């Protein structure tokens, strides 16, 4: 790999990871390596098809380098984009996935293109001082069987997670600036600097901790749920708790966001992605969306009874998903479960 241009590792070949990999490679200012866990052979042979409002329609696209796992990468990288789901309760927490490459790349920046709050904490604890960035994507895109269907233009917010262990702010800021330059293609996508990463993440929770969670719990689309009165009876009370926890954490979510978010999917027979995950028997990002805010509520002494109830009900949903997926095996005789992973 030539050392004169930066190298970027994209971990995760979902829609988000692929649009990032494509944008970076198309812009041509860095070398892109994509980690493809499923369908590796097919991707190597046939590549991906894009149906994109931004880049057009074409097939056979491949990133410059394709690897089956992070362990298969041999180089040091300048940027490591994590675009897999964040599942601390699953078989592969983020730290386990990227440990090898982070240790090998002490000067890299890790960019978490993921949901939820406090997601940087495990990385700060294990890799103190490492530059960690937050990526929030506003894209409407899917990847089904290697067909990337992108319905709106890519727009991302990038910023630095702040922590006292990250002493070298100047390096962190120059990494941030460099990444924005690698990613931003004039007239094609929007890359904005996120000056207040934590506030942005609190804002995302208004929708993600209320509408996603409740629809996921009962597997019902937004319009039908609205007819049943979920907005006033469930979502608003949950959102009020999110506002209160954020406030105790030192962040004021703008009040108008509540109605905006509640109206977002008005009239759409829309199933939020957490609901779709349950539909398809995939684990949900319960800990980073609900568990972490709830732990903060406990820490700050903020009452959050609805969030607490939703959390424990969704834990049961998660258990069911994990058992079906063989991640938990129930010893029916003894009445004890055991995980098939550490
Ligand atoms: C891409 O294909 C879709 C249908 O799959 C079509 O609606 C769209 O116009 C095409 N875009 C371009 C740029 O050809
Ligand atoms: C920095 O990260 C550590 C480890 O997660 C955490 O305990 C501490 O509260 C963080 N500091 C700030 C200011 O967020
Ligand atoms: C995503 O795109 C689909 C198809 O254009 C549209 O129906 C849906 O409303 C969009 N969703 C969001 C959240 O923009
Ligand atoms: C839910 O979180 C994801 C990831 O941060 C974000 O892309 C999405 O916009 C959020 N949804 C809303 C409606 O805020
Ligand atoms: C949300 O929708 C309600 C009912 O349609 C409407 O009265 C209200 O003005 C909307 N609020 C926002 C912020 O869009
Ligand atoms: C919540 O739903 C929105 C809309 O489908 C999606 O963008 C977001 O990723 C979902 N969040 C989670 C945690 O599934």
Automatic annotation (TrEMBL):
<protein>
    <recommendedName>
        <fullName>2-dehydropantoate 2-reductase</fullName>
        <ecNumber>1.1.1.169</ecNumber>
    </recommendedName>
</protein>
<dbReference type="Pfam" id="PF08546">
    <property type="entry name" value="ApbA_C"/>
</dbReference>
<dbReference type="InterPro" id="IPR013328">
    <property type="entry name" value="6PGD_dom2"/>
</dbReference>
<dbReference type="GO" id="GO:0015940">
    <property type="term" value="P:pantothenate biosynthetic process"/>
</dbReference>
<dbReference type="InterPro" id="IPR036291">
    <property type="entry name" value="NAD(P)-bd_dom_sf"/>
</dbReference>
<dbReference type="GO" id="GO:0005737">
    <property type="term" value="C:cytoplasm"/>
</dbReference>
<feature type="domain" description="Ketopantoate reductase C-terminal">
    <location>
        <begin position="196"/>
        <end position="318"/>
    </location>
</feature>
<dbReference type="InterPro" id="IPR008927">
    <property type="entry name" value="6-PGluconate_DH-like_C_sf"/>
</dbReference>
<comment type="function">
    <text>Catalyzes the NADPH-dependent reduction of ketopantoate into pantoic acid.</text>
</comment>
<keyword id="KW-0732">Signal</keyword>
<dbReference type="GO" id="GO:0008677">
    <property type="term" value="F:2-dehydropantoate 2-reductase activity"/>
</dbReference>
<dbReference type="InterPro" id="IPR051402">
    <property type="entry name" value="KPR-Related"/>
</dbReference>
<dbReference type="InterPro" id="IPR013332">
    <property type="entry name" value="KPR_N"/>
</dbReference>
<comment type="similarity">
    <text>Belongs to the ketopantoate reductase family.</text>
</comment>
<keyword id="KW-0560">Oxidoreductase</keyword>
<dbReference type="Pfam" id="PF02558">
    <property type="entry name" value="ApbA"/>
</dbReference>
<dbReference type="InterPro" id="IPR003710">
    <property type="entry name" value="ApbA"/>
</dbReference>
<dbReference type="InterPro" id="IPR013752">
    <property type="entry name" value="KPA_reductase"/>
</dbReference>
<keyword id="KW-0521">NADP</keyword>
<feature type="domain" description="Ketopantoate reductase N-terminal">
    <location>
        <begin position="8"/>
        <end position="162"/>
    </location>
</feature>
<feature type="signal peptide">
    <location>
        <begin position="1"/>
        <end position="21"/>
    </location>
</feature>
């Amino acid at each position: 790999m030539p050392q004169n241009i930066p190298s970027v590792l994209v971990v995760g070949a979902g829609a988000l990871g692929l649009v990032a990999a494509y944008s970076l490679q198309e812009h041509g200012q860095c070398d892109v390596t994509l980690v493809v866990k499923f369908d590796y052979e097919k991707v190597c042979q046939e590549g991906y098809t894009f149906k994109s409002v931004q880049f057009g329609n074409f097939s056979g696209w491949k990133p410059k380098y394709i690897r089956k796992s992070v362990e298969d990468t041999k180089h040091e990288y300048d940027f490591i984009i994590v675009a897999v789901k964040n599942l601390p309760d699953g078989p592969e927490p983020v730290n386990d996935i990227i440990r090898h490459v982070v240790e090998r790349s002490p000067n890299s920046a890790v960019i978490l293109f993921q949901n939820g709050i406090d997601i940087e904490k495990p990385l700060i604890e294990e890799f103190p001082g490492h530059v960690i960035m937050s990526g929030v994507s506003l894209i409407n895109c899917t990847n089904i069987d290697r067909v990337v269907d992108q319905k709106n233009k890519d727009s991302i917010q990038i910023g630095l997670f702040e922590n006292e262990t990250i002493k070298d702010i100047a390096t962190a800021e120059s990494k941030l600036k460099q990444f924005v330059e690698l990613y931003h293609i004039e007239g094609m996508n929007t890359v904005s600097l996120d000056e207040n990463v934590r506030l942005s993440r609190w804002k995302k929770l208004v929708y993600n901790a209320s509408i996603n969670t409740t629809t996921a719990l009962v597997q019902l689309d937004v319009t039908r749920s609205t007819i049943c009165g979920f907005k006033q009876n469930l979502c608003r009370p949950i959102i009020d708790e999110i506002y209160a926890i954020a406030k105790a954490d030192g962040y004021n979510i703008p009040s108008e966001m509540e109605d905006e978010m509640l109206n977002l999917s008005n009239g759409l027979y829309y199933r939020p992605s957490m609901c779709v995950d349950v539909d398809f028997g995939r684990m949900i990002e319960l800990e980073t969306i609900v568990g972490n805010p709830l732990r903060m509520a406990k820490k700050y002494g903020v009452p959050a009874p609805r969030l607490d109830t939703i959390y424990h009900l969704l834990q049961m949903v998660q258990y069911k998903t994990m058992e079906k997926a063989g991640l938990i095996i129930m010893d029916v005789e003894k009445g004890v479960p055991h995980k098939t992973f550490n």
